[in-house]
Amino acid sequence: MVTCCLPRKQISKPYTYLSQNRLHIVFLEMDCILHTYKHECKMAKNLFQHSAIPLSDESIFVAPDTRNSTLIKKQAAMARKTKEEAEQTRKKLLETAALLFWEKGVSHTSLADIASSAGLTRGAIYWHFKDKLDLFYAMSQQVVPPYHQIYDTMERNAADNAARSLWNGALEILTNVSNSPDIRRILGILFFRCEYVGELQSLQIENLDWIRQLQQRLIRIIELAQQQGQLKPGIDPVAAAIAWQAQQRGLVQFSLLLPDTPLLHSQPESLLKPYFSGVFKPDCWLAHD
């Protein structure tokens, strides 16, 4: 009886041997193999050396650790490349969707339009997004991190000067909208290019919840300003928080509708001063060196 030990990558296949002129197929389970990979390779090498089969490729007898290490490196490189390509495709789809949503409106833009404009197939869209709603939601979420960063900064700095932190946060929001075409486009879509009915109604509910969460953060900051003696007498922190949000939303929408308004770019402070002068004691929101 002659036994041919194959490389480990073929262990799931049947082992074949010739005995008493009959061909027998023996299926071996992984946990039943008694020899290590290195030992199997040595046996296979000896077999081929004593057979008529030419041994032209010694690569299969390279130490398994070396071959496995090389294979792992190649697989890792391929995985990184595939991941990078997938991220680039996803980014392209989001950018294309934002352009078309802004130009045509959300309801008049189909997934086929987005795929065609991006030079991709609809299958590429479904690989990254479940449907049009999922794609729209992913696009809208791109403006969330900058807002959270601004609110996080306001809360951290409020302990030193709450009014000043609100002033800086308001300026930063206007500056971001003014300087970032991507943020401007997405906010423009959310404000002016979609109707929050049907499948988009759930997103409107989520947006309202997010606005309320930000409002609670503002209330805490303004209450801290009250404790610091910065509020004018008779100012209610809740009312002041709602007014701050309304002012910011109004100025952002105004800048989207009338982007050429000079004050929005050159002197945003002059647009904020009426609110701060009415809510806070004189100049407490300004830096004093």
Helix fraction, binned, reads 55-70%
CATH level 1 class label of the largest domain: Mainly Alpha
Number of strands: 2
Major sheet: arrangement of strands: 1-2
CATH architecture of the largest domain: Orthogonal Bundle
SS strand fraction = under 5%
Give the low-confidence spans.
Answer: 1-41, 47-63
- CATH topology-level fold name of the largest domain: Tetracycline Repressor, domain 2
Category from helices, strands and their pairing: mainly alpha
Give the averaged pLDDT, no decimals.
Answer: 80
Distance between the termini: 95 Å
Radius of gyration computed on alpha carbons: 33 Å
List SSEs in N-to-C order. EEHHHHHHHHHHH
Instruction: Report the major sheet.
Output: 2 strands, antiparallel
The CATH superfamily of the largest domain bears the name Tetracycline Repressor, domain 2
Q: What report would you give on this structure?
A:
It is a single chain. With 289 residues, the chain is mainly alpha-helical. It folds into 3 domains: 54 residues, no CATH class; 43 residues, Arc Repressor Mutant, subunit A, CATH 1.10.10; 138 residues, Orthogonal Bundle (Tetracycline Repressor, domain 2). The chain has 11 helices and 2 strands. The chain has a two-stranded antiparallel ribbon with strand order 1-2. A hairpin with a 2-residue loop joins strand 1 and strand 2. The longest helix has 41 residues. The chain is elongated. The N terminus is likely disordered. GO terms for molecular function: DNA binding.
